[in-house]
Design a protein that fits this description.
single chain, 88 residues, 3 helices, flat
Length: 88
């Protein structure tokens, strides 16, 4: 079972890292398009889109969807660990 925890943990660490890369890319090179940025945006957009629908940026121009996605990923990871504990 230890390996299942490790797989879950690494998966969420990778998703959080890609999310962080997306945030940094949006600050440093917001209109850059290449293979790398396309992959990052393709992976992260499904995580961010639901939060953007609930909390649109509007006139504030501050996108809080990455923070909300990070918190959601954290909650999902905790929930998965709890479910795995129940099954073991």
């Amino acid at each position: 079972m230890h390996s299942l925890y490790t797989i879950i943990n690494y998966t969420f660490q990778i998703l959080n890292l890609i999310l962080l890369i997306r945030v940094v890319l949006s600050w440093l090179a917001p209109y850059t398009h290449n293979d790398f940025t396309d992959v990052v945006y393709t992976i992260t957009e499904p995580m961010l889109k639901p939060f953007r629908m609930i909390f649109p940026m509007g006139y504030s121009r501050i996108d809080i969807s990455p923070m909300l996605a990070y918190l959601a990923l954290k909650a999902i990871k905790i929930l998965l660990f709890y479910i795995v504990d129940l099954l073991v």
